[in-house]
Fold each of these.
Amino acid sequence: MAINVLEKRAMLGAVAFVAVSLALIAYATWGLGINVPTCIPLGSKPYDQASVLKHEGKNYEVHYITRMWAFEPSVLRVPTGSTLDLYAVTKDVTHGFEITGTNVNLMVVPGAIANSRIHFAKPGIYTIVCHEFCGKNHQNMNSRIEVSDAFADYSVEGLPASPGMKLLDAKGCLACHTVDGSASVGPTFKGAWGTTLQLEDGSIRTLDSALFLQKVHDPTAFVVKGYPPVMPVIQLTDDETEQIEAYLEGLRQ
Amino acid sequence: MELQKNLQRIILAELLVPLTLFIFGAYHGVLQVMYQSGVIRATSVAGIDYYQGLTAHGVINALVLTTFFAVALGYAVVSQELKSHVSIAGATLSLALMLLGAVMAAVMIFLGKASVLYTFYPPLMAHPLFYAGLVLFIVGSWVPMFTWIPVYLRWRKEHRGQKTPLGVVGIFATFIVWQMATLPVAFEVLVQLLPWSLGWTTGVNVMLSRTLFWFFGHPLVYFWLLPTYVLYYTMLPKLAGGKLFSDFAGRFTFMSLILLSCPLGLHHQFADPGISTTSKGIQGVLTMLVVIPSLLTAFTLAASLELAARQRGGKGLFGWWKKLPYFNPENWLFPYLFCGLVIFLFGGITGIVNASYSMNNVVHNTAWVPAHFHLTVGGPVFLGILGGSLFLITGLLKKPVVSGTMALIVPYMWTVGTFVFSSGFFLGGLRGEPRRTNLGLTYMNPASPSYRPDWWMATHMGLVGGCIMGLAVLLYFIVLIRSLTAAPDAARAQVPFLLPMSEPYHDEDIFAVRNFTPWVVAAVLLCVAAYYAPFRNIVKNGITTAPGFRPDSPAPIDTVHRKA
């Protein structure tokens, strides 16, 4: 026996509705370029320090840390017209990462890196809200991004210094070395650990614990090509060395 | 034929125990809108913490109440429609396991040892007895279907060539979906969470557990809905005074929900890392296909109501709407089902928004989500449970409903309440208001630097709507208690209690919907196809495991020294 004709029409109507909906979604995804977050392989090593990297123009890469119950950085200021590549990892439980009033809406899950991109065409104060229950102070967990024509470049607040970072500061290292990739008297620490260095004497060495200690104890032993031989001797205990090395390792890409 | 006396008692327990727990679930629902709008600015009220009460609200209302009702209705329908006795031993075992499990989970929640919300996402860790309680509850809910299968097979043998009664098809669809959905979550709890909470393992793969949870979490919503669909397809047309427009539509809907319930849980994880956009996209498309049986259901039920209204003398293209029994105290059950249907129209439409892939970026985890599901599980499902429970309880106890007029006000009040509540929450969601957050302390506190005046309207509409919903529940319990304490109705005692079952108007016999097996096989294959890639990726790449955390401390739980 055949299906009732009115019912057939109702089903065809439903199929047409689904087809139109899917076509609109396809248009939004590929036509307007609005997609859901992509997959960054779970196996890739998450960073453990929040940081901002400046790329060409008004393009920034922001590495957020989420933890119970704060975002790092807690305030980020960028000039109007900036484009931000946002990354977020968690140090403890699952958190949410939603910039209210925008299309940025991420889950930050242990063991994985969340990622999105946003362009700030208009100045304003944008709130990042944790929208996943993360413990008793969940309602306190937010951060803000200030966008203004008045800012020439980015600035951040609420990046707690790690023990290693504090030591670099205390020992005076930061006077000549940066941790964000920018140029200074000496080579930057950003992404340096584990890479090969070309030295003034023409040899090539890998920046590991041995090379690091050699340089710290006897700065005249070798010099990285292109930089002046001005580094003083630094006194470090074993504990301090370990903390600084852990921090430098965290700065690798 | 009357239901077995022992089965009647079991069904009564399966209805009355969760309704009693629901008193707290409803109470805390009202408290939540007060916390969120800032009427209450505190971490706890009467010793119950906001997130603790929220956990109870979710676990009791969405798991315990719904599952018990599905089991109770299942027993009543299967036994009545197959005119057969069912295994009392099986029913008792099921009830005992479910009760024990529910009590264990509830006690842990009320002791504050399981404030992890009803999604219990690790690495937030609850007490092992909470997880053990959930397992017992789920295993208990598996028992009934396996005791119905031999009864059904015997019926088929004795009634060769006859169609299975539509209500029985609906009940089996409900429990087939439940069986498929609960296996992954049972795996999550037994293999991942329980050993981890006991300190036997040091960490869990969180992406794996989230994906297992949502493999369960979305079919769960169809499991909520299917018993209500049984009420709609079997009882609603008769209560309206007519016939079911099409028997085929019911069978097709039930079969296609078996097929489509499971392979689409990833649409809850559109915002998750660690899952490719391809996998998300495939399950997004599969989600959309559920629109087809849903619209067919809307059409069939509207057509059935129109048939009934025209039989009552309804005229014109739209004029027939006036002829339905909206306010008949003798027929108080009709508005429970009818109002649920009206609410569900909006629940369905907003569900399409959630499921629309990149559109999810706007509403994911915002107040939009509870706004939506209070129009589904909180609308048709909840009203079906309230109406169905009152109908079954008074019917089995041969008591009068005191009073029919009060009973029929409940669904209308509830409808007004949910519409106000959900409109507010939709508005808040679009403005980025996070769901399940104690907003009164910060975002709805003018003294806080986080204050969001743009969420004021949303949370206060939630407050008004939530209070109306609370009053409707209060009224319901007044009716229930008055009916329970009334003297048995002599007239009712004369006739056996039966659920009203509609006759079909169109009764085409379509071969494709005569058998469960091909639909179940196709459903399993579709699940494998949709979930193979994401699970493979997560298991292959997700080597990192997370230690546990309690909701009150950012320090990880020391699994080695915890016992000392």
Amino acid sequence: MRKSGNLRKRETKTAWIFLLPSLIGFSVFVFAPVLVSLVLSFLKWDLLTDAKFVGLSNYKNLILHDETFHLVLKNTIVFVLGTVPTRVILGLLLAMALVKSIPGRTIFRAAIFFPVIIPTVAAAMVWRWIFNTDFGMLNDLLYNLGVNNLPQWLSDPNWAMVAIIILSVWKDLGFTLVLFMAGLQGIPKVLYEASEIDGASKWQKFWRITLPLLSPTTFFVIVINVIGSFQVFDQAFVLTAGGPGYATTTIVYHIYTNAFQLFRMGYASAAAWILFAIIFGITLIQFKYQKKWVYYV
Amino acid sequence: MRSTTPKHRVFNKSIEKTLLFIILLAVSILMLIPLFWMLSTSLKNIGEVFEYPPKWIPKTFNWQNFKMVWQLVPFKMYLINSLIMSGFVTLIHLIVASLSAYAFARLDFPGRNTLFLLYLGTMMIPGQVTMIPNFILVKTLGWTDTYIGLILPNCFMAFGVFLLRQFFLTIPRDYEEAATIDGASRFMIFRKIILPLSLPAISTLAIFTFVGQWNNLLWPLVITNKEELKTLTLGLASFQGMYSTSWNLLMAAAVMGIIPSLIAFIIGQKYLIKGITLSGLKG
């Protein structure tokens, strides 16, 4: 349909009216802050005294010298490696069971999904009590199972991160589950029926049909899980306050402390951009390598 | 080669289903045990909390724990603040996002694709990047410890624009063309045709936004100091700071913090799951 010049002009005007509220909001609270944040990352500024331009030294210090930052980076990577594969594997297995016509499946799905929507703060409060060394439910359970060396969980630097990983897997497993269920339901049943006629075993069906045809979903699940996990904050804030020592301080926690408690705005902004670079880089790599294993119909 | 007669196969299938049922039941119980433990502790008296071995069901149900929490901290105010923040963010977000999504989906204007890509690009930037300048902005404007400071910076999310645009694109153009011939304005079409037809997508986005803001901790933490503006998440976190070993009270507070989510879950489960699925399809 070709539009005359006048009509086109009028449509452009209408479009800008529809866009205006969004455009103003995005400019003020999204686009401008992105640019400002970039500028901040080249400054040394505590909000009170005058800002000082320091060039790339925030980045240089963070990347080369700042041992605390290296530690929180390592902690965050441990968290990502602990949560993402666990959620993907458990989520896939449970989804495969839940797409079958099993009695009570909607109730099971609801039970697994419910933790997703409760506030992480409330969930972390509950788990802080579960992980209590002397009176917590978990150690009581482990004791009854015959474990003698009961972990000190939140006060042990080695176990504290494990505790945060357990809480996070529990909390967000349902999200992964629902995505996998949708993906599985999209695989045509005919393929399974045809392979059964050819005498395919369960394993063959899983490896040759389910996994390849589900790979776009799996890819998406991994990508968003990685992005989300790199931004972990609430769990660490409530469960361990980043401790003991720095054992569970994550990148975002570190940014929070530096920006809003120590008022090191430049340093924190640079750290936020490094976080973005990491997430962006990993996502880019994943998109590049998806050709090797993701199968689009 | 395995030779299975049809009879065998039916038998195997039912064994398999029973086994899966048992596994799923076990997993579901495992998922709910923490919440049961929370509920159980919330009803204990403090003596029973520190009893060893721990009891799963309290001897007497101390409902007054809930009343205590309600009296020790302004819990009702926390709830109201969370409601105000989540409600207004949802409302503003939906209005702004649906208007712009309509422009992106249906109206022709120069630079449309570039602008849309710019919007999409912001979905990749973590919230922490924009949080610091937004904090400075809110502080400069004197909006710290105000509702507007809590609400406004959270109202602009590219995800909502994207989701609604995708949905609007699936609505057949015929409806609008008929209305145009009848002389309806673009805004009338948007309000009377597009919005009613998009109710499923709008509900999904609404419940998503609401739950997301209800659970938001970082922004309220950064932007509020005053007790009168604390949201539920912030109230829970500071309550834990004050009564860190009164586990029965802490769990009572957690129960009360989870009840609104439970209600939202019961009402909106369908939309929540649809929303996740929709966002998954774009991958």
Amino acid sequence: MIKRATILLTLVLLGVIFLQMVTKYSPSTALNPLSRHYVAAGPDELGATNIVTAVIVTYRGLDTLGEVAVLFISAAGVGLLLRRKAGENPGKKQRRPSSELVGTAIHFLLPLIFVLGIYIFLNGHLTPGGGFQGGAVLASGIMLLLLADPDTRLNHGIIEWLESSSGFSYVVVGVLGLVLAGGFLDNRFIGLGTLGQLFSAGAIPIIYIFIGLKVGTELSAVLERMKD
Amino acid sequence: MMLVLIATVLCAGIVLSALLAVHLGNIVSAAISAGMASLFASIVYVALAAPDVAMTEAAIGSGLTTVIFLYAIRRTTESPEK
């Protein structure tokens, strides 16, 4: 009885909150002062045409480092909980073979998916997307590979090496910004180049390559751990 | 006006697939419906001019999460004969 009353009360309170949000909503007609500063000064200060990237990688770079750390800890947690015991060989189970459609499509699709992922994080400072999105696309390519051939084994040596070295290099680039330019994760210790070119925006493409590789390898490792 | 119409239809899709995910008896179908809600959400993000978020939602929300759910279901419901 008390439980039902609590649930009802919570629902009513939630309803009141959402009703307020819906009835009092008015679309904002102008940017707030901080956004206006980012939009006006971002391209000149950091050389990135994609303002979202400028904010994520540089203005709010520390938050991004925190996100990368969160993802790393969850991937490490999955790896710890689902680790293989020594001498256990999970690859020899009888499995239903995957469908011929998936097996054939992967030969055509996998290279395209990888190229798309790399494109997304290389062009993060120019077009929508960036390290996280590109890394997630790379990992979905690995997911397709695991679905097409369940006996695929990823080389854990390469994965771990790529993941840890890109995470380390990300922090090194951040510290280089602290030493050579204005602050931690400042991208201006390399020339900004011409606005809109592939090689521009200082260290933003470098940082995004590291984030993309790190996110891609971490998510792939999680998928592979979950598989068997 | 067109945009509002499209966004409303897609949001109805999100709510419908979320309800399906809660009420479906088959746990595999429920996981697929949860992925479908993410897919609708990512199209809404594109319509509302947030392609960055849409990419993340499509790749992680509807792709990787669904497959991880399916792997987890298989691991937890596997028959213990081996």
Amino acid sequence: MISTRVSRLIGIFALIALVIFVGIFPVGIAPNDAVNTIAVFTLIGAIAVVGWNIFSGYTGYISLGHAVFYGFGAYTFGLACLYWHIPGGWEPFLLLPITGLVAGAFAFPLGWISLRTQRHTFIVISIAWVFIFQLLAYNLKGFTGGSSGVFMPLTPWVAPYADLPFYYIAFIILLIAVFVSWWIRHSKFGLGLLAIRDDEDRALGLGVKTNAFKLTAYVISAFFVAMAGAIFAYYVGSVYPEQGFNPAVDLTIVLMGFLGGVGTVAGPLVGALFVTPFQQWLDLQFGGQGVNLVIYGALFLVIILLLPRGIVPSLQEKWRNWKEARQTRLADRTRNLNKEPSSALAERGGEG
Amino acid sequence: MMLLEVQAVSKAFGGIQALSTCSIAVEQGTITGLIGPNGSGKTTLFNVITGYEKVDSGTILLNGKSITNSKPDVVFSLGIGRTFQLTRIFPHLTVLENMHIAARREHLNELFSRWSSTHEQRQALELLDLVNLLSHKDDLAGNLSYGQKKLLEFALILVARPQMILLDEPAGGVNPTMINEIRRYIRTLNQQKGITFLVVEHNMEFVMKLCDTVNVLHRGTTIAGGPPSVVRTNPAVLDAYLGA
């Protein structure tokens, strides 16, 4: 039987192999620049969904409004570069933690208000934030540039290396986000969040400070989603209201979460790996007519119907069932072996 | 010494008066029963004590200090745990993870430490062993049988070392063998750890064999109280139950 220690070692080696693979992908494996571009978008999407999962996945409060923080990140980044006259290059990347902190500061009052509601009402409120802030971004022209948006500083990098800084920065932020997500999942705080997901009232009755827990998770979640938004804006070169506070971003994030498996550490990563390249292909093929959004919606329904728990939890269940069946088989075999000597004795006795 | 005192508590839901100047007192270290016909206000009384419902009037004291209308997490941190009529565990978490939900979180560093490496882990495993669920520690709690869920709900409260546990129909829907086991656990914890119990139960045999004192509720008011042998012959109690 595979011991827990051995399976843990296998897991660690697999993780190291994966990190090495992703690390060398753009320089040694990717066939061309277009693939690198998709890889950058995949990493950005992965940061956003891992961040989203820290709140929505662990607490069960499905937020369809995290695009607000994506937009906050993008605008904070662009405006900081603009007003502080930061030139393009590596320097703007130092602003990423600041964009996260600004979004976290905004998430505090937004969360405090919206988390007074539960479940379905919360989903509606979360969507409302996106449109409110999109309208604000349109109308606060003196600050946000209105519909023209904000242009990011031009980067000095040229092809074929132009994508690499974004790729590696996004990769580092993703590693941090996954580590934080993993840490939370295995902490008492994370256990409290999962208890909220299962039965919030019961969790409260067992001493879990549910309001404080939810709000903290919401703020942490906003921190990472904002950094994803900032990297995205810097990568594409600008941010404008429709793109920054974009409900389609929420749909994509939720799609990635549900496909991979919400409430797990690995699930959102798996979801991002599938959804982002597919999304890029769809945008390329059908983006002009908006058919891509129809296909997203249909895909979302198919996932909910066929894989309601997502890929990773479904695989985990299969693994658990396989282990249980194996243990039962081993127990049966041991029982049979123990029986054999006595039956052999009985047979001998019968002969005598 | 009185551990819990409910003094003239009233609670109405619209036009329905669930509790009407209801008073009970629970002495420390005892097992107290709370019986009454359906709709007499037993579960509402549990809800107001544990902060799930707010009282309209009256006072609830724990160790002489008011806990009236305190929130459920505060009541729990003060040492009162409870179970529910319909078992409420966390079905998508493992049995062991369930045990850690109720563990105290007093400091911030504790909150962000790994739950499996805390000192509660040993205690959680011991408690699971006590209720014969140790072999199920890695199973999802939702996959347990109904009786096992009852035992898990009971055990997970114990992780927080409560002074008092309110049990809402612990024997409800459980087979006779399991009922005896539950009774044995309650008695053991009462005698060995000094935990005070307030038990709501319809199974009269269970209540009469287990409890030191029994309070009877009828239409939201306490109509009788005392040792089981006295209560079972009280004419007001017979009247309430038989409707004579």
